[in-house]
Amino acid sequence: MRKTDVEIIPTLFNHIDFLVVTDKEGYIEYYKVFRSLGSRIVKDPVGLHILELHQHLDEETSTIMRVLKNKEPIINEKQYLNIFKERTVTVVSTTFPIKEGNEVIGAVDINRYIYKSIRDIENSKYEDITKKKNHVFTIDDILTKNDAMIKVKNRTLKAAQTNSPVMIYGETGTGKELIAQSIHNHSLRKDNPFIVQNCSAIPLTLGESTFFGTTRGSFTGAENKMGLFEMADGGTLVLDEINSMDINLQSKLLRTVENESFRRVGGKDLINVDVKLISILNEDIHSVLENNKMRRDLFYRLGVVLIHIPPLRERKEDIPLLVDSFINEYNFKMGKNIKGVSKDVMDLFMEYNWPGNVRELKHIIESAFNFAEGEIIDKEELPNYIIPKEQEKASRISINSDFCLNDAVDDYEKRYIELALKSSSTITEAAQLLRISRQSLKYKIDTYGIEIK
Q: What is the pLDDT of residues 240-284, one digit of tens each?
């Protein structure tokens, strides 16, 4: 990554306290502290491995090492880092992979200090620190003209004002995490951690330690490590696809939610936490409960506030708004100047059923951007699978110097007559299938020289 590219990063975020860029192995290529809280342990760590700089971390606890391994970003994870001699700093880290094609060639790590008291905030050089947000989406990012979605936006704003657990449910791709982020960013917790955990990605044997952390010596190789609840203390914890969570782990989660406290694996001390829980379901609630994918007592505790996101096929009036938004986004990302989509494309979008919902629409626009050469996206730039088969066949029709419309119509009619005859036992039945008289059908059979078997 060029130095000029690195220096652009702080302009893209409301607030950064320090920034780290590593190569694909984890060796530091760029390191800058924008606001110091003391004398640094290492004055210039460029050239060091990230685990040499932070020796208390390992490949599982370092966000940089996990991003390099998994090739996926980590957003707003709480970490304790020994940056300064005088103190260990609590930070919220957002770490992205740097890619060249499909290959990860490094990572960029963006960090903010977490303030532990009102006095820390008052002493900060940043006067407006309480207005900064941890995550990107707010209620204004939800584009809609649909009455049901307007109600969802209103419920979202109300849910943000309380500490009650929220359950968001709807089909895949409807934007459930966007609603979760909006709840967080409109709440009093907006300057505290926002942590999302996909429950289907938690290995069965690591479920308890993932949520509650571990104590050194509790089992072979165990270290003192925070779990998700400690990381999210004071903020919001989102449990995505909670219906995928092991049923035995659900009972332990219920106990923690009820008591607002827990013990680390192998630990004796009770740890109290203040966390707003948002759970996300990608299935119908009744189906989840009937198939025993979720404990009913846990559902009653987490589903205090229920928010249902309607599928895109039920809010098609929003499609033009979403298309314009995605076109603006990809114009910026890809350096293009596409103005919109053709009428044929918009008609196709309005007729399509959208099983993948808003996410599918966004990906189709991105796909079209890869092929569009003009200012308007046309049907030829769309993936074939969304074009109805009859339209796809029509698009393959060509006219040359030998073309004759009458011959083409006759050929089309002849094929349907042959199909009707093949599907019927008598000429009368075939005529009824074609919705013409028997006399007309007999005349056409003779005209086209169709043999009746």
A: 999 989 888 899 899 999 988 998 888 888 899 899 999 999 888
Q: Is 312 left (phi over 0), alpha (psi -120 to 50) or beta?
A: alpha
Please state whether beta strands 18-23 and 103-113 pair in parallel, antiparallel, or not at all (unpaired). Answer: antiparallel
Q: Choose between 452 and 261: higher pLDDT.
A: 261
What six digits make up the tokens of 421?
Answer: 């005859």
Q: How far apart, in whole angstroms, are the C-alpha atoms of residue 75 and residue 134?
A: 9
Alpha carbon 167 to chain centroid, angstroms = 17
- For the segment 366-370, the average pLDDT, to the nearest whole number, is 94
26 φ, ψ (degrees, to nearest 5): 105, 10
Q: Could you tell me the CA-to-CA distances from 377 to 336, 353, 367 in Å, in that order?
A: 12, 20, 11
For residues 161 and 149, what is the distance between their CA atoms, to the nearest angstrom?
19
Higher pLDDT, 427 or 221: 427
- pTM, whole model, 2 decimals? 0.59
* N-to-C CA span, the chain: 74
Per the listing, tokens 């966390």 go with 275
From residue 36, give the alpha-carbon distance in Å to each of 18, 31, 49, 131, 283: 9, 13, 21, 21, 47
Q: Would you say 262 and 253 are in contact if contact means Cβ atoms under 8 Å apart? A: no
Residues paired with 307 in a beta bridge: 168
Which residues, in sequence order, are CB contacts of 230 under 8 Å at separation 6+?
Answer: 78, 213, 271, 273
Cβ atoms within 10 Å of 374's Cβ, excluding its own: 10
